[in-house]
Design a protein that fits this description.
463 residues; alpha+beta; 33% helix; globular
Length: 463
């Protein structure tokens, strides 16, 4: 990785200058932020070990990854190129890049439902009618069967944004609560709006920018959450249900989680009304717990978004999660010249069982499948390195596998072979004895024949 304290490298192609207020805001891994305008139509940034190109044309910005070995993510999805909307961001080589417009409207709506996913509607002064094409001139036109022709209106009054429900036949929901026709409600940064079956998020850029990247989570091994730079202690969660509710939302990392599934998961034997009351209490307490970790000027930030049917962590506020990193590394294990490098990064990213202290039903199958996927990648990697006689590259990976599964005889065999071939037979003998004791204690079995044969080769090497 490049020096995190160094200024990022930037180049602008020798093209005619452009007239735009758009800027690229780059947040480095150390938390520092650098701002780059568009002096030319094409700007390239060197971020860590990668290089990414941004091109301005006709008021729109596109991006392209110039380093094939370094992945770029937009909205959590792996991409190589695409369009970058104002307010949208990319994750690349440990950096976060957001497209910003200092002259833009003070707020906007962002679509989260097809066919409007990712679409952005700037909101300024005045009123913004929402509805299907037909009876009136809607500022936000949504051609969808669950949207009425006069469905709702967003308006800015006295410096605040408000939502008016107008449809008598199709729902208007704010934060999971349905509004009555004719009812006004205040809209705050991060709120989820539902227009029929379409979901949107209201954002106020100044508030979102101030509170960006607040949440860090570790779910591999012992669970740990850091919010606003403060660790949430085990007693701070109040109850285990609240802790594991947050852990589930964190596992999905900004994607919606169905409320019905959470009710069944956390209170499977409770009547519907009681489990819903429990969820409402847990969610209210969870919000209090998280906000208590924030600086005073950020406590209005909405960390958990609610619709009528789902909950999710606010995607704009997410920073790092070890499970997300691991899954991304596993997705990069594809045939090609970088296969070994991607496989090793994926295996070493696994630092313990998923939520090892959680015994809820949803965790067990995910924990098992994730570990099996990592071990499968590790086995293929070690077998490849054994064929190539890359003994040095095998030792660290095989040793890591034995930490994951001390009874993995195939990993013990490959590690012993690598150590013996590197003239480290004494270490190989120690690994064998340790694995043998574990097999007897945990499974009440002796090492298999192949491992015993390798043991004899190690003994011969010592004599």
């Amino acid at each position: 990785m490049a020096d995190q304290d160094a200024t990022l490298q930037v180049s602008a192609r020798l093209e005619e200058g452009v007239r735009t207020s758009l800027e690229l805001h780059v947040r480095r891994p150390d938390g520092g932020v650098e701002v780059y305008p568009f002096p030319r139509a094409t700007v390239e940034l060197e971020l860590g070990e990668g290089r990414i190109q941004f091109k301005w044309q006709s008021g729109q910005v596109s991006f392209r990854n110039l380093a094939t070995a370094e992945p770029v993510y937009k909205d959590g999805e792996l991409v190589r190129a695409g369009r970058l909307e104002v307010g949208a961001g990319l994750e690349y080589c440990g950096h976060r890049v957001r497209l910003w417009d200092p002259e833009q409207a003070p707020a906007y709506l962002k679509g989260y439902s097809a066919p409007y996913s990712g679409e952005i509607w700037p909101l300024g002064e005045g009123e913004y009618p929402i509805g299907r094409p037909g009876q009136r001139d809607n500022a936000i036109t949504l051609d969808h069967p669950t949207v009425s022709r006069k469905h709702a209106t967003i308006a800015k009054k006295n410096g605040n944004y408000l939502l008016l429900a107008e449809s008598a036949t199709n729902p208007v929901c704010l934060g999971g609560q349905e509004l009555e026709p004719g009812q006004w409600a205040h809209v705050q940064d991060g709120d989820l709006l539902e227009v029929g079956e379409l979901v949107f998020r209201f954002q106020s850029p100044s508030a979102s920018a101030a509170a960006s990247s607040l949440i860090q989570v570790r779910s591999l091994g012992n669970f740990l959450a850091t919010v606003g730079g403060n660790v949430v202690g085990d007693k701070d969660w109040k109850t285990q249900h609240i802790k594991w509710l947050f852990a589930h939302l964190a596992y999905e990392w900004g994607r919606p989680v169905a409320i019905e599934g959470l009710l069944e998961e956390l209170w499977p034997d409770f009547p519907s009304d009681r489990s819903k009351n429990n969820l409402n209490y847990s969610l209210s307490t969870l919000r209090q717990v998280l906000r208590a970790c924030l600086p005073e000027d950020m406590r209005k930030s909405e960390l958990i978004l609610r619709s009528s049917s789902s909950l999710q962590l606010n995607p704009e506020l997410l920073d790092q999660h070890d499970v997300v990193y691991l899954r991304r590394q596993l997705a990069l294990v594809q045939p090609g010249e970088d296969w070994e490098r991607a496989a090793e990064r994926a295996v070493l990213a696994y630092t313990g069982p998923l939520l090892q202290d959680c015994y809820l039903d949803w965790v067990a199958p995910l924990r098992q499948s994730l570990e099996l996927e990592v071990l499968d990648v590790a086995k293929r990697l070690l077998e490849q390195r054994a064929r190539a006689r890359n003994w040095e590259g095998s030792v660290a990976v095989a040793g890591h596998v034995l930490q994951i599964d001390p009874c993995a005889q195939w990993a013990c065999l490959l590690l012993m072979q690598a150590l013996r071939s590197s003239q480290r037979a004494a270490e190989a003998l120690r690994i064998f004895e340790q694995t043998r004791k574990t097999l007897l204690k945990e499974l009440e079995i002796e090492p298999d024949l192949e491992l015993l044969r390798e043991h004899q080769k190690v003994l011969s090497a010592l004599t």
